[in-house]
Each structure stands twice: as structure tokens, then as C-alpha cells.
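Researcher: Next sequence.
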Amino acid sequence: MKMNKVVAFALALGAFVNYSKAQEPVVMTINGKQISKSEFEAVYRKNNGKEVNNTTKSVNEYVDLFSLFKSKVFEAESMGLDTLTSFKNELAGYRRQLAAPYLTDKNTNESLLNEAYERMKTEVRSSHILVRIDETALPKDTLEGWTRIHLIRNAVLGKMPTTAEIANYEKLLKNQSEVSKNLKGKDSSIYKAKLNSVKYLADYYKNATDKFMDIAPRTSDDPSVVDNKGDLSYRTAFDLIYPYETAMYTTKIGDVSQVVRTRFGYHILKVYDKRESRGEVFVSHIMAAFPKNATEQDKTNAKTKIDELYGKLKGGQNFEELARQFSDDKQTGERGGQLQPFKSDGRRPKPFEDASFALKANGDYTEPVMTQYGWHIIKLNEKKGVPAFSEIKNELKTRVSRDPRTQMGRVALIERVKKDNNFKENLKNRDEFTKIMDSTYLKATWSAARAEKLGNKEIFNLGGKSYTQNDFAKFLETQMTFRSPTDVNEIMKGIYKTWVEESIVNFEDTQLEKKYVDFRNLLREYRDGILLFDLTDQKVWSKAVKDTSGLKEFYEKKKNSYLWGERAEVTTYKCLNDKVAKDVRKMLKAGKTEKEIIETINKPSQLNLSVENVTYLKGENKNVDNNWKAGVVEKDIIDEKEKKTFVIVINKVLPKTPKTLAESRGLVTADYQNYLEKEWLDYLKKKYIVTVNKDVIATIK
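Model: Next structure:
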């Protein structure tokens, strides 16, 4: 049968191998091809490691196993299996997976894990002001946003913008893409809103009680600021975008952060509190809800209801049953009031959240708690703190790998590769592209051929490899898509940065086999595993299934090996009671057919009798085994499970007979595969002549 390709390989041999090195001792030759000691030794040592103590083989046994393995690899190569597109694509897919951990900085990633875990222990309450800037914003738009956020930050700290600063900002604002476009369309609303957010900062500050949260609704571009004044409540690692998270943890309580850039734009934040993590709670609740537009009487009725339910709980009634019967939260009521586990992150009403985390022991419940949605009684099912690092390390790895912070590992790798490979850059040659970039690029009709007039000069060099203007032009062409009117040269510079980074990572990717023995060996293991699978599939597994004439011929020669044991063809009359069984026996004695018996007995009721015809192997049914001869079994059988009386008729006892090919196909196919494999291995042993250097073998311990 088929199996995973790499698993098949691993079962056949285990691990793989170092490349042969010049001047290394030769452990064997196979058809004149030399096998180094290190290659053989790598396999031997891996298969005799702690993980395979129970199946350790001697060196001499490994000689036979390894030589057969190498013979199979050579056979696959001789058949050209390593040249097939399907093979190359599959190996390339495995290589991408194997390469991924090598194409990031391991030390940085380990630091990110530890940093995230330490941050999980603390929850930080912060409020923020956002000046929204697109990730691909032009410099003039970035400058407008940068100026605005700094003026706001200074005002929050008590330094109001001067008349000159406001005038300078207004010039920048009029040049900002979105504003200038709207002004041309006679729409000044965005212009006025942004200008006023700066122009009246002194008034906002003078009238503010909380200098940060009261200014936030008048200056922040975050839509939620109208409701929360920028207050993001208590958050911990992974709850917010990484640059903001870092600022949140590195800013002291009461302080306002420096400006933070995220993919949303520029932020400033104020930290209001830091506390030990509350962890996570799993609670249930019973709810007496306030109806929409609730009157005071509605609220009184809800309070009366929750007090009555609280009294029933105190009287010993079951929480879950009360939730199912009476909770106004019907969705959770069906589950006995159970909510999904949650953290103390402000996403639920504060009274509800605080009451939930205040519960101490599983099973404890609160007095009635009021929120804007109604009254609640909350029961604690489970409370979890931050787990030990060892318990969640793998989960953290997954979360970090899916989080933008993982780019820090890539950035660190790029910088290291630059340094190690003497990265040199000539931006003057890059900037020559301003001569050939125009609006056709925005319309996706630009051609890389336009760069030929530049002379194909080098833009950067890495590890002695030259990356030229023509190379960059081809990359630019691959990144081309229809874009709105904008500064095409700024787009070019952004794409250039991407090209440099991708080129550096790709360069490192090409060096992996040379730099890392483990990577080289594992890739070779995957390579040969795929080859061995495909070869064995072709020669054994699929052949046994597809070669119908060969399978039939094999069956005819071996069919006496596939026998049915003694069998009995049995009819069981399942009678409603003893009276029905007695009537069945009378009709059997009178020679009535099964059909006649069923029609007669079930005429008053279809529940009186059912009939089952089964062929049993000896040993499958003890009631049949105890009466192994043809005829009606003398005594009725009382079946306790079905609560019925059985009358059993053994129609025929069959001797041992060969199974048909259809009846034994699975067993025959497996045996045929074994036969084909033995024939194939004999062929390989004859084709590939192995000469072992016993002196070198003797040095392997």
C-alpha cells in the first residue's frame, strides 16, 4: 500500500547523508560509484540514536541496507525520475518549507518569543491619538501627518503651536494629496477638519479635564474615538499592532509616548495603568435584560426578576437549569449560560468584567450585577493565569510567525547578509530610472525594455554578484499594476527597496546547502525519499493494482492459500414472543417457505416476526457453533438484547473452499506486491555490484 513519500523513505533507511568530500575514505563502491565513509556513517549513527534503541542494527547489517538503498536511488536516476517536472515541483515545495526557518534571524525570533511571554504577564491601559497615513503614502502626505501628530503631542504636553507653526502646517496641508484633490472639487470639509484639529489646540487644552482623552476626540482619525476617547482599556501582547504594543510597554505610567508609526499611521499614546495580568476567565451568566428604550418600570421589572432568580440560587436550585429556563440571553441560555472564555480587555461592560475576575473559586457566583444591557448573575467555571513558558512556547512560535513582528527576524537576517557579503549600493544608478518612469507605469503598460538605454550599470553588489539596471527593470515590470495617479518615481523607490530585500533573501537561500550541513542533509533526505517512493510505486504498489492479468495469474497459482473456513448458511427467525416462535416451528415442520411463514405470522401485526439470512464462519456465532449441522436448531434462543425469541435454521454447512479473486483481492494484492518487490530487489542486486571496503567499515563504531 502507498504511504507518505518521506515517511516511506525514513522507514526504508532513516536519515540521510552528507555530500561526499574529496579525499574521504571510501566505504563501498556501487557499479563503480564511490560512497564516502561520512555518508554511510551519518545514516548509521542516526539510526542507532536514542530514538531507535529498540531496533539497533549492526554495522554489517547497515552495509546491506545502505547498499540496497543506494542501488534504488541510482536506479531511479537511471530511469530519469529526477528529471520529471512533477518531481522537481514537489522537491521545490519541500525545499521552501525547509528553508523558511533559515531565512530569518534565529536569535531575533527567540528574543521575540521571550519578549512576548514577558509582556503577557502585564496588562497595560492606554489611550491613543491617531493621524492616519497610508502605508504607501507619498513623502508630502507623510510630512503633513508627521507635522500634525507632533503639534498635537506638544499641545497635550502643554506646548501650544505658534502662529508660524500653524501657518507652516496649513501650507503642508494644502499640498496633501487628499486635501488638494478635494479643494479642486470645491470640497473643503477634510481641509477644515484637519486644520481645526491643529488651529484650536489651545482651546481644546484649556477646556480639557484629562488633557489627553479630552483632546483625542477632536484630533484623532480613529473613528472609535467618539465613543472611547481613544481609551483602549487593558491590553497585553498580541492584542494590538506590534509597534504600538512596544510603545505601550516601554512608556511609563502617566507619560505620553514618542510618535509611533504603524501601518495605520502615526500614533501618540498615554499609559494610564499597568497591572499584573488577570489571565482569562470562563463564566456563565443568567440575564434579566433591559428592553430597547427601557423605561424605569422596565428596569425595575428586570431587577425584580434577577432578585427572584438569585433567591432560587441561594435556595439551592441549579444555575444551569435556571439559565436554560429563565435567562433573557437565549443563545447562552441553551448552554446553561456559558460564555466563551475572555480576557480583561475592556470588550465587555466593565462591571461585568470586574465581577467575573473578582470571583475566586470555581462554582462561585456573584450577586446581581447591572450593566447597560441588564442585570446579570455570573458564575465562575474556570480561571486561568498566564501558563508557564514551556507550556505555550509552541503556541507563541505560531503566533509570532503570523504576526507582523516576525518581520524583525527577516530585517535582522537582511542586515546580517549585507554585512557578511560586502553589500555595496550605487543609488545614483537607481535614480537614473527617473528618466524612464512615467504615467505608463501607472497604467500597467510600461516595458522593462525602456531601461536598455541606461546602459545596464550596476545598482548594487552582493557577495560579488552584480545586480544591474536591467535586473531592476525586469522586477519593476513584474510589480506593475493599474494605479491611481501619483508620483511614479516614489513608487519606483518603494519597489526598489522590495527588490533589494527579496534579492538579499534569495541570495541567502542559494547559500543554504553550502552553509548548513543539517539543511543539506535533510533536503537530500527529502529528495531521495521522493525518488524512492515514486520508484517503488512504479515497480510495486501501482503495478500490483494495475497489472490485472499478472494479479489473476498470481491468484490462480496461490488460490489454495486464500480459503474460506467452514461456514454455515443460517436463517434466523426473530419472534416477538414464545407463542410466535411455536407457530414458526409448526410451519417449518410443515415445510412452509420463508415467504409463506412471514406472510402468515405477520398478518395480524408486522411486529411479530423478522427474518435474517447470514453466512457465518465457524467461531462467529456461538449459537450456530453449538449446533453445527443442517436442520432446525432444537431449542429456541432467548436474545436479551433484542428481547426476542430466536428460531435458528442451519440451511447448509459448507466445507473449506478457496475464496474468489474478488473476495480475496486485498490479501492477494498485498501478497502480489511482496512478490513483485522480491523480484525487483533480486534484479537490483544483480544489476548493482557492491564492493565493500572492510578496512574502512571496521573503523566505524
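Model: DSSP finds 31 helices and 21 strands in the chain. The radius of gyration is 40 Å.
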